[in-house]
Fold:
Amino acid sequence: MATFKAIRIDKADKGTTAALTQFDEAELMEGDVTVAVEWSTVNYKDGLAVTGKSPVVRRFPMIAGVDFAGTVLESSHPGWKAGDKVVSTGWGLSETHLGAYAEKARVKGDWLVRLPDGMTARQAMAIGTAGFTAMLSVMALEKHGLTPKNGPVIVTGAAGGVGSVAVAILSKLGFHVIASTGRAAEADYLRDLGAAEVIDRNELSGPAKALAKERWAGGVDSVGSTTLANLLSMTKYGGAIAACGLAAGMDLPSSVAPFILRGVCLLGIDSVMCPIEPRKAAWTRIAKDVDHAKLAEMTTEIGLGEVFDAAPKILAGQLRGRTVVKIS
Structure:
């Protein structure tokens, strides 16, 4: 059988090891569609998998990489044929199913979404799980009834992947966006993406009051922990926060006060096992509501071998915007 280039993760005496190597096609897992992977990306979970900082990988050997875009090589799935351009995000790739940092991937056809018209595979991976999550968050806020007339919205971790795309989408939709970041040097970058205000994350890092001064009608939070608790305490009556990340921790040191005294809603966002119809809807919206010029501005390109350097940087909050990985 043929081999192909991949970042392989193996179990070690202490933790895991990750290396760029040749992977035997015979070791690919079951699936009804085989894809020639052209582009991938670097998400927070990719950083965890490649560095071994958290036990997100649950089978070995594993190919790292949560997302891919590419071209169908072979398919026994009725919805796909050779030559189709496809995108996949989540579904346990690089956790329980061999992932995307490879020249080939074999997956279930039900996990795939057609590459939107007018979007390249590279642009799709500039979106990736992070941007897809941002879009799901925006859609959840809209479903809640939030409009620009309700007041400002806040985006935390704004210079990161989810945050950058959320800022760009919300500003294009007409919202007054407040961007929260711990990187003051990125203020101009965030304003270029559409942020009307940039605040220091320290404003949201202290112990949260049960209720604080109302500052925003809603928001997108990828940080969690004390930051999310503060967001909730400062959300206006009837507002909502879409929670989609845990960069600062899984805890939530809050109270029921925002929920029962101001009618605030906490909207949970999961992108990994999101059903296929909401996925399609989100990618349709992405194609329409993401400014390609802003997407290009927030995107950096690396090669597959450079993932090892990028992985610890995304965990340390040192990567700006989105990083795409050229596979072939």
Notes: The mean pLDDT is 96. The longest strand covers residues 3-11. Residues 121-144 form the longest helix (24 residues). Residues 244 and 270 are 7 Å apart (CA to CA).
